[in-house]
Design brief:
Elements: H1 7-26, E1 32-33, E2 61-62, E3 71-76, E4 82-89, E5 96-102, E6 119-123, H2 141-151, E7 158-162, H3 182-197, E8 200-201, E9 207-212, H4 214-225, E10 232-236, H5 251-255, H6 259-268, E11 275-282, H7 288-298, E12 303-310, H8 317-333
Parallel strand pairs: 6-7, 6-9, 9-10, 10-11, 11-12
Antiparallel strand pairs: 1-3, 2-8, 3-4, 4-5, 5-7
Length: about 350
C-alpha cells in the first residue's frame, strides 16, 4: 500500500530545497568581476623585516594602462577574495588562452590604492592545459598565500595563473620554430596583460615566477633568460633541460632555452643583475642530485640559489605547497618589493 509522505518529511524536503536554492543564489561563479571596482577588503600587510630595504615614498607604481580584460568569477576563497578568469589573446605571440588571477585583500585596502603590488606568475606541472591546477581549492596554494600575507610571512602577491601549453603537448615555455610562441606568451603577453589590468611595479623588483615539474622548468628558464624583467623564482621538482620532442631539427634554438646555457651566459655578463632561485624538492624525489649539481655549477656570481628539501615529500603539488609554507615563499618575498601604504 502506498503511503502519503508525512508532514515531517515534507517539511524536511522543503527546507532542503530552500537551503539549496539559497546556496545556489549566493554563488557568483561565472558572474562578471572587476578587480578595480570590487568591494574593499579588510586586510592589511604587516610590515616586518621582509622589506627593510624598501625605499620610502616613491613605490615606482605602474597604474593599469588598459585595455581592460573581461573577467568572470571562477571561485571564492574563505576570506572572500576571488579567483577570476579571462581569455587572453596574445598580441605578440598570436596565441589565445585562459588566464586566472587572484588578488589579496590588501589590493582592495584604500591605503594601498596608489601602490603597485608584486606579481607571482604561477605555473602548473604536466600539460597545464586547458587549466592551471594552482587555481583549485584542493591544492590550497592560494589559501596558503592568503594566510601568509595576512601573517606577514609573505608579500601580498597578485597571483597570475596562465595555461602552460596550447594543447596536451610540452612546449617548454618556448618559441619552438613553426609552433605557437609559448615563450613570448609567457614572458611578454602575460606580463603585458597584468600591467593592463592591475597596479604593478615598473621595475623587475615586483616580478617573479613559481612553478612545479614542467612548470618549474619554464619558471626557471624564464627568469634566467630575462633577468632584466623578472627577479626571482620558486622552481619545484623541475626539469633542468628542455625535453620537448618538438625541438627536433632545431638544436640551436633548443640550446638557447637551456637553463644551463642561460645560467652560464648570465654569470659571464659583467652587468648581470642578481636573480634569486629557490629550488624545492621532496626528500623522496630522485632528482635531488640533479638540482644539487645545477646549484654547484651555476649558483655563483649574480645567481643566488636556495634549496628547500621537503621531508617525506614526493613529486606533487601538496609537497611543494608545504615547502613554500616552510620557507621558500618567505625567502622569495624578502627579495621583492612590497606595496607601500599612503603616508
Amino acid at each position: 500500500m502506498n503511503r502519503l509522505p508525512s508532514r515531517r518529511l515534507i517539511a524536511t524536503a522543503l527546507l532542503g530545497s530552500t537551503l539549496l536554492l539559497a546556496v545556489t543564489a549566493c554563488s557568483d561563479e561565472g558572474n562578471p568581476y572587476d578587480f578595480n571596482s570590487a568591494g574593499s577588503g579588510t586586510g592589511s600587510i604587516q610590515r616586518n623585516d621582509l622589506q627593510q630595504t624598501l625605499a620610502k615614498g616613491d613605490a615606482g607604481t605602474l597604474m593599469p594602462r588598459g585595455p581592460r580584460s573581461e573577467f568572470s568569477v571562477f571561485r571564492t576563497l574563505d576570506d572572500g577574495t576571488k579567483v577570476a578568469q579571462t581569455t587572453l589573446s596574445g598580441a605578440k605571440s598570436g596565441f589565445t588562452g585562459k588566464v586566472w588571477v587572484w588578488a589579496p585583500k590588501q589590493y582592495f585596502d584604500p591605503k594601498y590604492a596608489t601602490s603597485g603590488f608584486p606579481v607571482l606568475i604561477a605555473l602548473p606541472g604536466s600539460y597545464g592545459y586547458d587549466n592551471n591546477y594552482w587555481t583549485q581549492e584542493k591544492k590550497q596554494f592560494l589559501e596558503k598565500v592568503a594566510d601568509m600575507s595576512q601573517k606577514g610571512t609573505s608579500l601580498p602577491f597578485l597571483v597570475v595563473m596562465p595555461v602552460l601549453n596550447p594543447e596536451k603537448k610540452y612546449y617548454d615555455g618556448s618559441d619552438i620554430p613553426g609552433r605557437p610562441k609559448m615563450g613570448t606568451w609567457m614572458t611578454e603577453d602575460v606580463p603585458d596583460f597584468v600591467k593592463s589590468n592591475f597596479r604593478t611595479f615598473r621595475s623587475r623588483d615586483g616580478w617573479a615566477f613559481m612553478g612545479s615539474s614542467s612548470g618549474g622548468f619554464v619558471a626557471l628558464k624564464s627568469v634566467l633568460k630575462y633577468p632584466d624583467r623578472f627577479k626571482a623564482v620558486i622552481s619545484s621538482g623541475p626539469d633542468i633541460v628542455p625535453d620537448s620532442p618538438m625541438w627536433k631539427g632545431h638544436p640551436q634554438e633548443k640550446l638557447a632555452n637551456n637553463p644551463r646555457k642561460l645560467a652560464a651566459d648570465l654569470i659571464k655578463r659583467p652587468d648581470a643583475p642578481k636573480v634569486y632561485v629557490a629550488f624545492q624538492v621532496g626528500s623522496k624525489e630522485s632528482l635531488i642530485p640533479r638540482v644539487n649539481r645545477f646549484m654547484q655549477e651555476y649558483g655563483k656570481g649574480p645567481i643566488k640559489t636556495r634549496l628547500q628539501v621537503i621531508p617525506d615529500g614526493i613529486h606533487n603539488p601538496a609537497t611543494y605547497v608545504r615547502g613554500m609554507e616552510s620557507g621558500s615563499l618567505t625567502w622569495l618575498s624578502s627579495h621583492l618589493k612590497a606595496p607601500v601604504p599612503t603616508p
